[in-house]
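Posting for a labmate who doesn't have an account.
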Amino acid sequence: MKSAHRRPPDRQRKRFLPTGTDATIGPEHNNLTGRALTNMKMERFDPLNGSIAHILDILGEGWSMLIIREAFFGIRRFEEFQRHLGIARNILTARLKKLCQNDILERVPIKPGAKRHEYLLTSKGKELMPALIALTQWGDKWIYGLGNEPIIFRDREHGQPISPIRVHAEDGRELRPREIMPTPGPGANEQAQSRLEELAELARSLDQQ
């Protein structure tokens, strides 16, 4: 008869993060909230502690962005998401829960007093529309090739394709990558500030070449 193997109480647990990340989560972190653990994980993943790392933690796997796309299409109910995406129920349940926890979707009764629920985009979720369009346009150009687009987003009133998403300066000028520089924001930590100073110095040296 095999004896049950029990993990020593003081053994530290590992979280699955990219190779080279110090991902040890030990007993001293037991009192941290889920959001605090996420922030700590992202700081280790991205020394700049930038928004991109946090966004990827929420949307970094394929199903989440497809669920958001379907929500923009007007899909609201669990069975509809499952039917249109062909996603397993347990995976869909987990993704919807995470999107609701991060205030991208809101789970509400289909009508007052009803036991069944539907999922609606929040204001926070709706502001992902430019990102969704930009990712689609990038994929159309570099994966399918122009002229082979499987989906074309159009202006509903006039029927014209949406203009390519571009980055513009405050005065309206379209900016190229070399014309954009990262600078410390109010939430930058010391490590981020140091790294951004290095990037500024690198940019100045490249400008002199």
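Reply:
Got it, the structure tokens are right above this. Residues 16-59 form one domain.
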